[in-house]
Amino acid sequence: MEAARAHIPDAENSALVVIETKRLLPVKWATWMVNPGEGNALYESLQDMSPNQRLTPQQRDSLRAKLQEATLALAYGSKLAGMPKGRYPIKWSKDALGTLMQDQQNSRDVAELFRYDAMARADVGDLAGALTSVKAVLNSSRSLAMSQV
């Protein structure tokens, strides 16, 4: 199975950038998104927004504070915008069914990070930065394409 997977050089491999970006996120950074309905007003309010809606001053300040916690991850992960191909390392179990794919699951957290960064950037008029973050969201998702067996 491994031999049939496409080879992607490390320098072009978005999966490796996703893995490192996730590692650079503060340990509890994503927990503010995990328990909707349990009083997380920021998360819930962002989910209900339409694409053409501006952030409220409270949303803007709260989101900026959340993104500030993830500065290192955002800086490193921004290179995802130019990396459309990925292939995750897989440690196969003997029966293949028991193979864990935690790194692939973590690509969601990285995509969400850049989704919120794009929202914050667009809200203050940084459209070029917002587009870069949207490309990072897309390529975080694309990093999974070459992981399939």
Give your account of this protein's structure.
This protein is mainly α and 149 residues long. The chain has one domain (2-29, 55-147). The chain has seven helices and no strands. The protein has helices at 14-24, 31-34, 41-47, 57-69, 71-77, 102-123, 127-142. α1 packs across α6 and α6 (102-123) packs antiparallel against α7. It starts with 13 loop residues before the first helix and ends in a 7-residue tail after the last helix. The model has no long low-confidence stretch (mean pLDDT 83).
Q: What is the N-to-C succession of helices and strands?
A: HHHHHHH
Q: What is the domain total for the residues?
A: 1
Helix percentage: 40-55%
Work out the radius of gyration: 17 Å
Shape: globular
Q: What fraction of residues sit in β-strands?
A: under 5%
Low-confidence parts: none
What does the main sheet amount to? none
Number of strands: 0
Helices and strands in order:
Blueprint: H1 14-24, H2 31-34, H3 41-47, H4 57-69, H5 71-77, H6 102-123, H7 127-142
Helix pairs in contact: 1-5, 1-6, 4-6, 6-7
